[in-house]
TrEMBL record:
It comes from the Bacteria. Gene3D superfamilies: Ribonuclease H-like superfamily/Ribonuclease H. This is Integrase catalytic domain-containing protein. The lineage of its organism: Bacteria, Pseudomonadati, Pseudomonadota, Alphaproteobacteria, Rhodobacterales. It comes from Paracoccus aestuarii. InterPro entries: RNaseH-like_sf, RNaseH_sf, Transposase_IS3/IS150/IS904. Transmembrane segments: none annotated. GO terms for molecular function: nucleic acid binding.
Length: 74
């Protein structure tokens, strides 16, 4: 995925959903999500960004497990 697509998608989500300040934006450490422009857009819109300081492929495991259980139980 290109950086521009990630930025356009985030801008669209903000415009349509109008997330409240403190909303958690959870991603992996993909280069498109770590750019200064993307992170600035998140900060300017009041998002919290839980991300480890260094690449760690286990970052998403707890969230993915939670949502997998929630989706399968519905």
């Amino acid at each position: 995925m290109k950086r521009d697509l990630a930025l356009r998608t985030l801008n669209m989500a903000i415009a349509i959903r109008r997330p409240p300040p403190g909303c958690v934006h959870h991603t992996d450490r993909g280069s498109r999500y770590c750019t200064h422009v993307y992170q600035k857009l998140l900060r300017n819109n009041g998002f919290k960004v839980p991300m480890s300081g260094e690449p760690n492929f286990h970052d998403n495991s707890a969230v993915e497990s939670f949502f997998r259980v929630r989706i399968h139980n519905q």
